């Protein structure tokens, strides 16, 4: 079972693991659109913000740098008030964090999370430490937490099935993109070959027009014979 919450913007989905075992399951089936929140350096719930569909569509991405930029753009697209709500929810669901006057909240794209065999259940690391954002000195906002907690709902969700369906859709978009890129390259190669051929014809045409310029003056048979005699 997973806890779901409603933030102030219905475009976003907010969910959270019930315990460390649930967190471990969620780590297997996150979407590229998911942003992971946690209290920095303290134990806490794993809170996820799922961005609107298509926000992180990697089907058309050609390399890692482009993918990273896409994720950075996705992070930057989240409104400040939503980030604050996520920070408050994360702090409130940390045994130590909720008692502290203030604490730091870390968040990063789900795709930046790293799980290793040596790690405890529910524990994660980061693929790129620089690719995480820290919200410092977050103080409790009782009213905001109260509003979020009012929307708490426990649901049974088949995240595995959802992930598989999304992956099928993304692979289809990826295949379509690759096919379109191949067709585009084929047309570009065809156009380049045509332009090259046209340039060759143009050069030959110019050569034909200039090769005999000034050789004959009258164009008579006698003059042509005289020219031939000169060459011979």
What does this entry show, briefly?
This protein is an alpha+beta fold. It is 45% helix and 18% strand.
Q: Please, could you describe this protein's structure?
A:
With 232 residues, the protein is of the alpha+beta class. The chain is built from six helices and nine strands. It has helices at residues 20-26, 64-76, 80-92, 142-150, 159-210, 221-231; strands at residues 2-5, 13-17, 34-39, 47-50, 102-109, 113-114, 125-126, 133-139, 153-155. The strands form two sheets. The chain has a seven-stranded antiparallel sheet. A two-stranded antiparallel ribbon has the order 6-7. Strand 1 (2-5) and strand 2 form a beta hairpin. The longest helix has 52 residues, at 159-210. The model has no long low-confidence stretch (mean pLDDT 86).
The assigned structural class equals: alpha+beta
Uncertain stretches:
none
Please state roughly what percent of the residues sit in beta strands, choosing from under 5%, 5-15%, 15-25%, 25-35%, 35-45% or over 45%: 15-25%
Terminal Cα separation, in Å?
102 Å
H/E element sequence: EEHEEHHEEEEHEHH
> Helical content, roughly?
40-55%
Annotation, overall tally of beta strands: 9
What's the tally of helices?
6
Summarize the main sheet: 7 strands, antiparallel
How would the blueprint of this fold be written?
Blueprint: E1 2-5, E2 13-17, H1 20-26, E3 34-39, E4 47-50, H2 64-76, H3 80-92, E5 102-109, E6 113-114, E7 125-126, E8 133-139, H4 142-150, E9 153-155, H5 159-210, H6 221-231
Antiparallel strand pairs: 1-2, 1-9, 2-4, 3-4, 3-5, 5-8, 6-7
Helix pairs in contact: 3-4
């Amino acid at each position: 079972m997973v806890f779901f919450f409603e933030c102030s913007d219905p475009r976003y989905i907010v969910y959270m693991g019930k315990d460390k075992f649930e967190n471990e399951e969620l780590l297997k089936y996150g979407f590229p659109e998911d942003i992971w929140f946690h209290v920095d350096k303290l134990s806490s719930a794993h809170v996820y913000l799922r961005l609107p569909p298509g926000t992180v569509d990697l089907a058309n991405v050609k390399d890692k740098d482009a993918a990273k930029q896409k994720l950075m753009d996705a992070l930057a697209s989240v409104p400040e008030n939503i980030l604050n709500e996520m920070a408050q929810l994360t702090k409130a669901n940390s045994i130590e964090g909720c008692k502290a006057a203030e604490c730091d909240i870390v968040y990063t794209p789900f795709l930046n999370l790293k799980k290793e065999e040596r790690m405890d259940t529910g524990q994660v690391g980061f693929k790129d430490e620089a690719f995480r954002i820290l919200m410092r000195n977050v103080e409790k906002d009782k009213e905001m937490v109260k509003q979020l907690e009012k929307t708490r709902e426990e649901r049974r969700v088949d995240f595995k099935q959802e992930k598989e369906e999304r992956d099928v859709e993304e692979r289809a978009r990826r295949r379509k993109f690759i096919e379109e890129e191949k067709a585009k390259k084929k047309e570009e190669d065809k156009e380049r070959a045509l332009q090259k051929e046209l340039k060759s014809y143009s050069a030959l045409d110019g050569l034909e027009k200039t090769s005999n310029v000034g050789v004959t003056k009258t164009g008579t048979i006698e003059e042509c014979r005289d020219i031939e005699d000169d060459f011979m």
